[in-house]
Amino acid sequence: MTAITAARAYLVDIEVETVRTDAVQAFLKQETVFVELDTADGLTGTGYSYTIGTGGRAVLSLLREALLPRLTGQDSRTIEAVWSDLFWSTHATAVGAITSLALAAVDTALWDLRGRRTGEALWQMAGGFRRAVPLYDTEGGWLHLPTSDLVAGAVASQERGLRGVKLKIGKPSLAEDVERLTAVREKVGPDLHIMVDANQSMTAAEAVRRAAAFEPLGLYWLEEPLPADDVSGHVHLARSTSIPVAVGESLYSVGQFRDYLHRGAAGIVQVDAARIGGITPWLKVAHLAEAYNVSVCPHFLMELHVSLAAAVPNGLYVEHIPQLRAVTRTELEVADGMAVASDSPGLGIDWDADAVDDRRVA
Length: 362
Ligand code: MG
Fold this sequence. Notes:
TIM Barrel; alpha/beta; Enolase-like, domain 1; globular; 13 strands; binds magnesium ion; about 350 residues; 10-stranded mixed β-sheet; 2 domains
């Protein structure tokens, strides 16, 4: 009765609510790949994955041509077995972003099915540590915004009761980065957590130089200072600064996180459930980080990650970037600066089926 009887995938473009820029790119639309799995007992699980603008059709093609045909007849309860079968069937293109994103769409659908079958919410079935997790805001910190807007955004977040804000860095001159961060710090006072994100734009030498200039500002973390494959550079930087180095949104396997943690190159882990291949490997990374006494602050996808960060004891923060408002019927619940995980069975994302259908492009 729990066998998979049908599997579908489709691509939906979700518009952004505001222009989002960083040191290397602009986020202009979210390509959202949905997977729906039907089972013999009459349930349907919905999973999803995403890109911030390119490659969505490659993910969809891999799903339709290679992955979904393998699912019919498999037991939807054996998530590890299904995940492993799909992963090894795509061995020639793994580890890689397209494959991990495709796996995530299937894996999240399987977890949605599990919760719908048992009546459990994701935050409970994935571990059940606590219901609510602190939220920090990224939406007011984009790189193109003038300093006055950064300051106003940080003040607004503080007044809403949030404990932290993230500001993009990587302006051509160090002085400009320092001027922007200093203006925010002077306005909000010493207690608000200020995270900064360079989106992999620097060399190790430049990151060491900028981090030294940022030291007096009391930053909470320095995110993606270097290209994600430069683990040695991250080791060098981490040893040279007191600011925790945060990485993970551009890593695509558990083993890549192991290398960072083993070498002391990550002070914060930002594993992304879509880019790592789903909830199944996400939890492995979170538990691995716990063994290293490192906190997890997942990248983006707040609607899903609130439940995962709530599931594990080392979930420290959820990132506020509202991107699913146009295609969901209820918004993320926020109370006293904390994001509250849904108690609904499954992933707990209240999709608006008509709004999703309206945006279907493939
Ligand atoms: Mg980032």
